[in-house]
C-alpha cells in the first residue's frame, strides 16, 4: 500500500488509496465510496475505519471506553472543526455544497445532496429539526451517515 521511502510508508501517485490514507481521509473516502457504490465488504471496511477515526479524534467508538478515557460527547474533534470551518465562511451553504462535490463522481455537490436526501429522507428530516449545526452533526454521526457527508449536511440542514 505504501512505498517510496526507506521504511515504505510514503504514498505514491500510482496508488491513490495510499494518497487518500496519507492525507488522513481514508475513513471518509471509504464511507463515501460505500455510499456511492454499495458493496458489503467496502461497507464493513468503512465502518471499521470510521470507528477508528472517531476514537482517535476523541469519541470512543467501541464497546466500553478504557478506564480514564477522557473523550468528548457530541461530534468528535475532527467533525467539530470541519463544521466550524464551514460556519466561518461568508456563505457556509455554498462551501458545504463544494465540500459535497469533492466526494461526488461528477463533481456535482447539488446532485449528491439530492441523492443523499432520497436515500435518507427520515434521517435528514430529523436532522433538519435540530437547530444547532454541531448537534445536527452529532445526530448524523450517531445514525452512521458517512463522515465525509456530515459537515456539509450539518450546514445545509433542512430538506428543500
Protein model, in words:
- By secondary structure, this protein is an all-alpha fold.
- It is 59% helix and 0% strand.
- The chain is globular and about 45 Å long.
- Mean pLDDT is 87; it is low at 1-7.
Shape, principal axes of CA atoms: globular
How is the main sheet built? none
- What is the chain-wise order of helices and strands? HHHHHHHHH
Number of helices: 9
Radius of gyration: 16 Å
Share of helical residues: 55-70%
Q: Give the end-to-end Cα distance, rounded to a whole number of Å.
A: 42 Å
Which structural class best describes the helix and strand composition? mainly alpha
Number of E-state strands: 0
Average residue-wise pLDDT: 87
The stretches of 5 or more residues where confidence is low (pLDDT under 50) are 1-7
Characteristic terms for this protein:
160 residues, mainly alpha, 9 helices, globular, disordered N terminus
Explain the layout of strands and helices.
Blueprint: H1 16-22, H2 26-36, H3 40-56, H4 77-88, H5 92-103, H6 109-119, H7 121-128, H8 133-142, H9 150-156
Helix pairs in contact: 2-3, 4-9, 5-6, 5-9, 7-8, 8-9
Précis, in short:
By secondary structure, this protein is mainly alpha-helical. The protein has nine helices and no strands.
